[in-house]
Amino acid sequence: MASEIRVDKINSLSGVGTVTLSPTGVDIAGITTAATLRATTGIVTSLTAGSLTSLGAVSGTTGTFTGDVDIADKIIHTGDTNTAIRFPAADTVTVETGGSERARIDSSGRLLLGTTTASSAGNSQYSKLEVSGNTSGATGPGHLSIKRGTATASLSNGDTIGRLIFSSLDGGDFAYIQASADAAPGSSDYPGRMMFFTAADGASSATERLRIDSSGRIGIQGSPTKGVLDVRASGGSATMLTAVFGANEGTTAGTLSDNTDKACRIGSYHYDIDEEPFGILVASGTNGTNNLTFGGGTSLMNAATEIKFNTAANSTTTAGTNRMTIASDGKIKIGTTATPTQSGAVNVFGTDSGTSQISIRRGSNDDGAPKIHFQKSRNTTDGSHTVVQSNDVLGQIVFAGNDGAGPENGARIGCVVDAAPGGNDMPGRLVFETTPDGSDTLVERMRISAAGAVSIGQYNFDGKYFNVAEPNVTDGHSIYLRANTSSSNSNNRVINCDLHGFYRQSYGQTGFRFRNKDSTSNNRAARVHLYLNDDDSEVGNIMIGTSSSSFNTSSDYRLKENEVLISDGITRLKQLKPYRFNFKITPSETVDGFFAHEVSPVVPNAVTGEKDAMVPNAWYQEGDAIPSGKSVGDVKGYSSTEMEIQSLDYAKITPLLTAALQEAVTKIEVLETRLNNAGIAT
To answer: Fewest C-beta in 10 Å: which of 310, 397, 557, 575?
Structure first.
């Protein structure tokens, strides 16, 4: 057995302190400072602070504790009494610096930085890390700093600075946010970009979806290269830019309930000139509507002063050329930005035939046609209906020319209510107006009434369906048609009716009525002259006198040449075959006459048309394969059902009948002479 010294109390040499040993522990009294307290394993199990206020080291033989160290409140750093690790409450650990709490692990296991109380709002109650800024005001936001342990000078463009990764328990990354160098860093130069990655369904790794570069540009589905917001996609729904605002999103993803206000607005600027916006768009809809609105004018955006549409011949032209403008007063200007000289809602200006015309085309397999629709109502609210009145103008087409000071109307076509309208009753007339020379006032020249009657020059129809009145000019004629525009050549007149044209007397007789305008001979004969020849010679005329009428063919010897007396009249006459027949349309009426095709070889000029001819229905045109001997305009095909009727002018047989009769008379006279010479009385 080893030697032992057993004591229950040790007094210090100076007598100012004692160490008492007992089965329950070691009590130190009267000693305020001890450089070292040593104990072998199993002897000192706890150290209770009493009068011992300073302890240099507490350790076993190597300065360690094999058991727990119980601390009532805090562990204080030597020489820095305001820095400590504290245990302020059950299941709570805090860290203090400068006498203030900087971090806390609460009873729920949450790490709190900058705050002593965890937030319970929203999803914050589920967070394990909460960072709060300086509570003194708005200058103290919460910060979470992630640094790369590499000197700035050693970083290159594209190097990753840090990541915030969202992973599953098995280590798979669902998504992460990454910060990278956006260019080569340098002294006081830290270009950075943020990148957002998500993993697609079925993918094991995340793909970049959005990037914010060092200049603040945002790129979706790719790096931004053009605008502040650059959206790139290969197709499908990914190409759409959609913003949805409303009280709720409905029950279907990506939709809103129909009674919810929906809106999206986009305002962006020209890629080169900040002061030049290229587009503002607001899309909104409620209660079944789905509207597309340009220029704002809603609670979401102020209205535009003007909406301009510019185009350019190539992609390098920045400004382009204004093609259409919707002005602040609602007028539409096409081809010009100037204030319209007319009050029309739509104004088109052009410098050639291409830019100064409106073309309306329709392509449909039906009998419909393009339309220009004019509509008039006496109600000022669109969609409301108030009946129009007689003589209300329903629409007009106006033709104007510039007189050097401004536009002046030269002609106008209008539609006017022609009588009192009513339900399903809208009588209308067309009115044609022109401006006479030396005037700037439109004068009505022609109208077509609701009943279809046409009146030219005057407008008292008096039951007549075509009325022509002499214009109030010194050389006027009711109808004066020419073959050309030369007023000096009177032979070019086709029809020259002085006072009256078609006329119907009150007791029912109808026909042409011509009356000479000479006041001294109102009953002079009237003529209808026909000119068909290239030399302007008269072919014939119709003469109506006071007591007779005649149908005349021009026969002046001065118009003829190569005249030869007919010497074979009887021979030719005998070739004619007179028949008695009826026309199929009138089976009960028997007439005498000839067949035109049989007369044609005998008296060719008496027959028009060809035997068995059918009506032409097709002609050779440009681009057709034209056979030899044919040309553009020649007949290509004929109808199989519509006949081209031969006609016979019986009057043209008269010369042949006269010649044959003369020959017969001559022969009769010769026979009479011979009989008389033979003593036979005739």
So the answer is: 557
Q: What's 126's DSSP letter? A: G
Q: How far apart are CA 277 and CA 173, in angstroms?
A: 42
pLDDT at residue 268 in the model: 43
Query: Does residue 36 fall inside a structural domain?
Result: no
**What is the arithmetic mean of pLDDT over 294-323?**
74
Express each pLDDT in 192-250 by its tens digit.
999 999 999 988 889 999 999 999 999 888 888 767 878 776 554 454 555 554 444 44
Closest CA to 472 of 431, 521, 439: 439
Residue 53 forms part of a structural domain: no
- How many residues belong to the chain? 682
One domain, residues 213 and 266 = yes
pTM: 0.44
Q: What is the pLDDT of residue 459?
A: 65
Q: Contact, 368 vs 362, CB < 8 A? A: yes
* Dihedral sign computed on CA atoms, order 227, 233, 237, 239: positive
Calpha distance 347→349 (Å, rounded): 7
Which are the contacts of 152, defined by CB distance < 8 A and separation ≥ 6?
185, 186, 187, 190
Assess if residue 597 is contained within a domain. Answer: yes
Q: For the chain, state the CA radius of gyration.
A: 57
Task: Report the side by side order of strands in the sheet with 393-402.
Answer: 393-402, 407-417, 428-434, 443-448, 454-456, 466-468
* Pair (441, 539) in one structural domain: yes
For residue 86, the enclosing domain spans: 73-133
- Of 505, 528, 559, the one marking the end of a domain is 559
573 shares a domain with 553: no
Q: State both tokens at 147.
A: 């640094």
| Residue 263, beta-bridge partner list | 284
Most confident of 288-297, 534-543, 558-567: 558-567
Is residue 406 domain-shared with residue 553, that is, in the same domain?
A: yes
Task: Read off the pLDDT band of 576 (50, 70, 90).
Answer: very high
Task: Identify residue 677 by its one-letter amino acid code.
Answer: N
Q: Give yes or no for a contact between 133 and 141, defined as CB atoms under 8 angstroms apart.
A: yes
Q: How far is Cα 461 from Cα 455, in angstroms, rounded to an integer?
A: 7
Domain boundary among 559, 583, 603: 559
Q: Which of 74, 103, 68, 97 is nearest to 87 (CA)?
A: 74
**Domain membership flag for residue 370:** no
Structural domain tally of the chain? 4
If asked whether residues 582 and 541 sit together in one domain, one would say no
What's residue 596's pLDDT? 94
Q: Is there a single domain that holds both residue 352 and residue 297?
A: no
For residues 537 and 556, give the distance between their C-alpha atoms in angstroms, rounded to a whole number.
Answer: 10
Asked if 206 contacts 193 with a C-beta cutoff of 8 angstroms, the reply is no
| Tokens representing residue 552 in the block | 């005349």
Side-chain-facing half-sphere of 557: CA atoms under 13 Å:
2
Instruction: For residue 573, give the DSSP letter.
Output: H
Q: Are 523 and 657 in a shared domain?
A: no
Q: Hey, is 459 helix, strand or coil?
A: coil
The answer to whether residues 541 and 646 belong to one domain is no
Q: Residue 179 in contact with residue 170, Cβ under 8 Å?
A: no
Beta-bridge partners for 160: 180
Report angle CA 368, 396, 470 to the nearest 5 degrees. 110
Least confident of 300-314, 492-506, 532-546: 492-506
